[in-house]
Design brief:
38% of the residues lie in helices and 28% in strands. The protein has four helices and five strands. A five-stranded antiparallel β-sheet has the order 1-2-3-5-4, covered by helices on one side. Helix 2 (46-64) packs antiparallel against helix 4 (106-117). The longest helix has 19 residues, at 46-64. The chain is globular, with a radius of gyration of 14 Å. The mean pLDDT is 91.
């Protein structure tokens, strides 16, 4: 299944220890990446994207750090798309459908709600070995 992300010309990868400071670092890096790619601070996707990255990184720190001492944030972008993923090496794959149907709560539900409000998409992708996953968010610019 092709996601279209492979065609996006911009890439940035951040790997940090799975600890509290990762949230601030990931948020600051997101803001820097968007600015470098020409997405101004006042663009309507910037604040939601910063919140979504912070929520996903927080979830990895809280729930995956025992099995995943580091986490990776991958950014991909193009003229009309901004995508990012938070990856950890914990096998649990959260059910995004619970957030879609309103039965979810907390940070992941916030991420999914913001993604849908912005006309984007959210997907969980398991690692090939089943021992980790990435949560990908794709937003239109």
């Amino acid at each position: 299944m092709s996601t279209g992300l492979e065609a996006l010309p911009y890439r940035h990868v951040l790997t940090v220890p799975a600890m509290g400071s990762a949230v601030r670092i990931a948020r600051e890096t997101t803001e820097q990446v968007l600015a470098e790619w020409g997405v101004g601070r006042r663009h309507p996707c910037v604040d939601p994207a910063l919140l979504m990255v912070a929520e996903l990184v927080t979830n990895s720190v809280r729930h995956a750090a025992e099995l995943s001492p580091s986490l990776t944030v991958v950014f991909a972008g193009g003229p009309d798309t901004f995508a990012f993923a938070v990856h950890d090496r914990h096998p649990h794959q959260p059910a995004l459908h619970a957030a879609f149907t309103g039965s979810g709560s907390g940070g992941l539900a916030t991420v999914v709600e913001l993604t849908l409000q912005l006309g984007g998409s959210a997907v969980v992708r398991a690692d090939a070995d089943g021992l980790g996953k990435s949560i990908w968010i794709t937003l239109p610019l």
